[in-house]
Design brief:
The structure is a homodimer of 313-residue chains.
Chain A: E1 4-10, E2 14-21, E3 26-33, H1 37-40, H2 43-57, E4 65-72, E5 81-85, E6 90-94, H3 95-103, E7 107-111, H4 112-123, E8 132-137, E9 141-147, E10 150-151, H5 184-187, H6 189-202, H7 216-224, H8 228-252, E11 256-260, H9 269-281, E12 290-293, H10 300-311
Parallel strand pairs in A: 1-4, 4-7, 8-11, 11-12
Antiparallel strand pairs in A: 1-2, 2-3, 5-6, 8-9, 9-10
Amino acid sequence: MGKYIFGVDVGGTSVKMGLFDMAGMVIDKWEIPTRTENGGELILPDIADSINQKITKEQYLKEDIIGLGMAVPGPVNAAGVVNKAVNLGWGVTPVKETMERLCGIPAVVGNDANVAALGEMWKGGGQGYDSLILVTLGTGIGGGVIVDGRLVTGVNGAGGEIGHMHVVDGEEEACNCGCKGCLEQYGSATGIVRLAKRYFGKSDRPSPLRNADITAKAVFDAVAGGDEAAKEIAGEFGEILGKGLAMIASVLNPAAFVVGGGVSKAGEVLFDYIRPSFEKYVFPGAKDAKLVLATLGNDAGIYGAAKLVLDME
Amino acid sequence: MGKYIFGVDVGGTSVKMGLFDMAGMVIDKWEIPTRTENGGELILPDIADSINQKITKEQYLKEDIIGLGMAVPGPVNAAGVVNKAVNLGWGVTPVKETMERLCGIPAVVGNDANVAALGEMWKGGGQGYDSLILVTLGTGIGGGVIVDGRLVTGVNGAGGEIGHMHVVDGEEEACNCGCKGCLEQYGSATGIVRLAKRYFGKSDRPSPLRNADITAKAVFDAVAGGDEAAKEIAGEFGEILGKGLAMIASVLNPAAFVVGGGVSKAGEVLFDYIRPSFEKYVFPGAKDAKLVLATLGNDAGIYGAAKLVLDME
């Protein structure tokens, strides 16, 4: 009988769960709803029930389970305590300790954006690179930094907050974090929509996007269709995002940037817009960094959570 | 009889050398000139002679020497090969292999700015922090990044090139690296002089600095003397440098920035100018990073080189 790992990714609406073998193959994959009522007090017991049921159903012995990895949407300290996770309703929550008590197996906990980076390095677009930055272009911009195979969590669990790097001076609107000019104000799905609206407020250029319900997907669809206005908007997006990645590369000299999230569904065309700016701004010695697409989609978290377990010492 | 370590810092005009015990106490410290003629071919043999003479004079046994750490001004790969060091006249140079052959003791090699960070963490201003950035404000800006006690060298040895982060849009003069708007164009000693000259070109404010031979030291001396023009120049310096450090903190969430180099001789007053900008631009979760002064001065390299030896596995 083999050995097994659980990888769990806790999101604001559902919890993704995976059962893995030691080689990282998915044996089973399922979801349960995230019950955020009452300060999210049911979330961990729900997850534990689901895991314990799976163990019983598969007739596994507890000693066959190497451990349980958890990805959570908030800062996590080295003891596996989450310091507030707004989307889950949590205040300070001792996730590792609670899960070990409820499941009777070793648990390890990481921030979801960081853990996703580990997943992409292990089984996704980042395979073959041991120093990489995962750049998740969704509603906001998430980041995960891996150096020499290890996650950079930061001293307060705020490592990898690349969406909140300052990249534009003189911005008047504030980011969700309270600062002005953060990368995610321009490079996220929301940011692209903002750039598009600004563009159409200033330019008279005709475009099917004008007066339409603008989304990041609509912009890149219009780019693919040859729309000049969309290309200019994508150009501004690429200029700013490429500059942000260049700043990171000048500090860390990574092997690759792995780009995921909803915006990345536009595909390789993104890099046509990001790369010229990246090369313009980066320190020449760090210019070789590859730009690659993430491949695991929403499963990056469960893969990374399983890898967290394998990396436990 | 104890065990000993050599720590060597190879500079463009002199080689600093230190003999350390295992606790990191300096037993002896000396310098030899750097002979850069003929592509710097004499540099490594000169160092080896000096070390071998020291071993003979002290009547050490080779097995009492744990190893030899070397800090060199250029990018270094994992095999201890330096890929060009302009100040030494070197092209690709196998430093580790050469020194092991010439001295008969294990050698380990690092980039000088990175190694200095290790020294400051071990015995200098960064003691007590295991995730820190050394920011060396000299003629240029050097950097060394340490995460969880380990140096971030980067995949091409270009890790920590924080002086070449892009921080200002619209700059017209080029940096030495070829890019425009790099941190070292504003935050280094040379950068401060540039800012001062620009200031006096635009402002009529009277100041003892006007028409004088401006240096970074003169600017901060004038700040200490209450000169308003100097304070404005220092304000611009602090605004840009604080912004650059904030960008780094948003990505890495370090415990501290350790500020060294000639400009740091101005002392804590630097932080009065850097901190407000840092706090304005940084991701809130990473705001706690300490700003501290480096304390080892020119000895940071030999300390860090000795620490490289202790960190060998």
